[in-house]
């Protein structure tokens, strides 16, 4: 489904991978001509004439609102997480609801789950989306968001499918090919496109620290202090003294303003700094733990794994090499 806020890379990336199923492995590996097992089409609820999508890319959709496909894919909606989509995307919301009730599978990638949530079809269901949109998605009634999962299948008959952020649309297309064609063909496509299954989820890529809020001046001042002193002992007690209010009142007011308990907020700051240290240096894990404020390295390791989805050592192995490769001068 094409909307003005979709990126061409995601829209046509999904299109190309789906079109490859049943055709390209046969031609490139087996030496025989074959047709695509799937027939992807770009659909727009805003007419079939030329349209401009994200980053000024011009496209021409194949079909319009009269189409009721077997599967609808919503690649993404590149808007701020708190954007209200009810009026701006009313046609898409109504059409998705109509397609689902007609028996179609509705699949979303990245922030496309935000439009799906507007349909009401996710009420009482498990869901995921790009990590930056998880808090916004969780505000919809009855939606149970799983930020750590790269792919979630829910709804009647498993007809609601959501992939997380970034390139997890690749996981979504492989899953659809496995479900609609065969597991073997999905593996063929994965090999042709060099697609790795995102089995670690998206938490290792997420920026855990929430952005600083400014509506509550007292809490904003405490957030500013925490950003500079998160590594100190007893940071929550220090923020309570800075706020000059009773402890219970501070905890209630801090969570109301930030969505997190004070100690959880401190943990997010510490873990985000730990991620940077693991990526950029070779210090022992114990030294990293102490540098961000944890005397107990074992506790740090357990907390890191629970919040990030992998151990500090695994995180360093995955991202330290990537950083070095990107920083290495071209030869």
Which key phrases capture this entry?
331 residues; globular; alpha/beta; two-stranded antiparallel ribbon; four-stranded mixed beta sheet
Q: Helical proportion?
A: 40-55%
Poorly predicted runs are: none
| β-strand number | 8
- Termini gap: 42 Å
Average residue pLDDT:
85
Strand order of the largest sheet: 3-4-8-7
Query: Rg to the nearest angstrom?
Result: 23 Å
Give an overview of the whole structure.
α8 runs antiparallel to α9 and α11 packs across α14. Helices cover 46% and strands 7% of the residues. A 4-stranded mixed beta sheet has the order 3-4-8-7. It has a two-stranded antiparallel sheet with strand order 1-2. The chain is an alpha/beta fold and 331 residues long. The protein is built from 14 helices and 8 strands.
List the helices and strands and how they pair.
Blueprint: H1 8-20, H2 24-28, E1 51-52, E2 58-59, E3 71-74, H3 90-101, E4 105-108, H4 113-118, E5 126-127, H5 134-138, E6 144-145, E7 151-154, E8 160-163, H6 169-180, H7 183-193, H8 217-229, H9 235-243, H10 247-258, H11 262-280, H12 285-291, H13 297-308, H14 312-327
Helix pairs in contact: 1-6, 6-7, 8-9, 11-14, 12-13
